[in-house]
Amino acid sequence: MPKLTLAEARSLVAAAMERNGAAPANAASVARALVGAEADGLKGHGLSRVATYAAQLRARKVDGEATPVVTRPRPSVVAIDAAHGFAYPALDAAVAALPPTARETGLAAASIRRSHHCGAAGQPVEALAEAGLVAMLFANTPAAMAPHGGRAAVFGTNPIAFACPLPGRAPLVVDLSLSKVARGNVLAAKQRGEAIPDDWALDAEGRPTTDPAAALSGTMAPLGGAKGVALALMVELLAAGLTGSLFAAEASSFLDDEGGPPGVGQLILAFDPAAFSSSAPERFAVLAGAIEAQEGARLPGARRLALRAKAQTEGLDVSESVLADLTAQARAA
Predict the structure, then answer these.
(1) What are the DSSP calls for 152-181, one per residue?
(2) Model confidence over 164-183: pLDDT tens digits?
(3) In order of start, what are the domains of the chain with their CATH numbers?
């Protein structure tokens, strides 16, 4: 299987974005996010997204030249208009603005509207935890899950992410979709021509399916049944209702170049631990240590960090088809 260094992969992704209409700074932001996800083993949010992003740039479903607009409507609130561009530059702006705001007020929030696919939701909260903050992210996505007892999708897979600092080591990061798996995993399986497990998704008739194409035309199975659906409702209200963004059922798909911009939203909360306790990170470490002391137990994200370290030293394994498509997009007129 072909290999790419992380630098080579970022260069190819950035070139693909620029050749299809993204401004250099936006292309670089997208490249960092996608290659970072690929390195962490989150392939549904990695290089498999390049072709779709490129098609959306050409169709103007995403504005590759958009610059996020940042305002401060309240002392502890950062409001960001992604302007129908990629989510990543807006998330970068939030990560830059939240630390000084949180240290000033103790608790700060960044709302992002008119946004796009936020990719691996753990990335921005991890960056905030590396700056010493506790962070949570809520994101709504285009309709993919039905309400409990229903069959028509009204909620997205709506990821939630959390991160907190741990003294002397990488932050603890929790990143989960409220569907049983992220929809990007189904897309990646379709691109590879592989079947999916029969408990991931339902077809348009509400039946379990192993066909990724039928799954993409149907609905995703919720994480935890009715409880997962209730959490998806909560995220929909926080990430879209609160930020003035489109609800899942109003948003166009992340997976094709049809329709207008998705216009979804994200909400990030950042806490300065020092405002709440003089020993919060040390207390976090106590619980982390108690978990790791148990044989067979591990903290969330341990596999991700191991894969990241391996990618940094050995590069990325990239399939022939993904590499060919990535190279073609990077050379597109």
Answers:
(1) S--B----EEEEEEETTEEEEEEEE-SBSS
(2) 999 999 999 999 999 888 77
(3) 1-59+302-333 (1.10.1530.10), 66-179+222-300 (3.30.1370.60)
